[in-house]
């Protein structure tokens, strides 16, 4: 079964154990405890692995009886998901909320997200247009890498996001690990976020209505797609933004906005 250019492992597929064991073992040498606790079917590594097999494996995440799709699931660079996104400042929140509702979207209750961004020890992410962060969302934690933007209109880029253990102490331990490797904390970005999904031009667009301290309110329109779907996804986002009356697209991240002179 395939979705969005990605090969998915059907629930109960007998090849699931081999694929997961191969991919995780190639990356870590052993299977992390957090994954064996959640997915007991992957506890047995395969003894017939070769070095060549490991070199071909680039990502260890896979669909395995998961209730929530990871943002990035791939077996090679050409299969990586792209995040097509545009962000706009919001002047009239009530009008935007009303239009989202008219389009069938239901805004969620607000939740807090706290992102801790890191500087690379040997290259300047500000110059390479990359980002590495640890996100705290309630008890959940995620580590995210964002690659350089690939066009001059949207914020489209490759994104790899992986779940971590839950709880503040787990996030702190990962931050300690990054710092031990030479990564330097840059700044925390805290926001209150509400989400909605709107069907538009055959796509289900994710909308995030954010309030960021010191910056104000913004809305992000996002699709996660395979690379070959970029142009129609881009046009979908652009036309939806126009329909919503959104103007003055902001390509800088919240971190860049906070770090910029105001």
Description:
The protein is of the alpha+beta class. It folds into 2 domains: 2-75, no CATH class; 80-259, Beta Barrel (Hypothetical Protein Pfu-838710-001), CATH 2.40.320. Helix content is 27%, strand content 31%. The chain is built from 8 helices and 10 strands. Strands 3-7-6-5-4-8-9-10 form an 8-stranded antiparallel barrel. Strand 5 and strand 6 form a beta hairpin. The longest helix is centred in the C-terminal third of the chain and has 14 residues, at 230-243. The chain is globular. The chain starts with a strand and ends with a helix.
Radius of gyration, Cα only, in angstroms? Answer: 19 Å
Strand order of the largest sheet: 3-7-6-5-4-8-9-10
Helical stretch tally: 8
CATH superfamily of the largest domain: Hypothetical Protein Pfu-838710-001
Count of separate structural domains: 2
Q: How is this fold's topology laid out?
A:
Blueprint lengths: L1 E2 L2 E2 L8 H13 L4 H6 L12 H6 L24 E9 L3 H10 L8 E9 L5 H4 L2 E7 L2 E7 L10 E8 L3 H13 L3 E17 L2 E10 L3 E11 L3 H14 L10 H6 L3
Antiparallel strand pairs: 1-2, 3-7, 3-10, 4-5, 4-8, 5-6, 6-7, 8-9, 9-10
Key terms:
single chain; 262 residues; alpha+beta; Hypothetical Protein Pfu-838710-001; 2 domains; eight-stranded antiparallel β-barrel; two-stranded antiparallel ribbon; 8 helices; 27% helix; globular; disordered N terminus
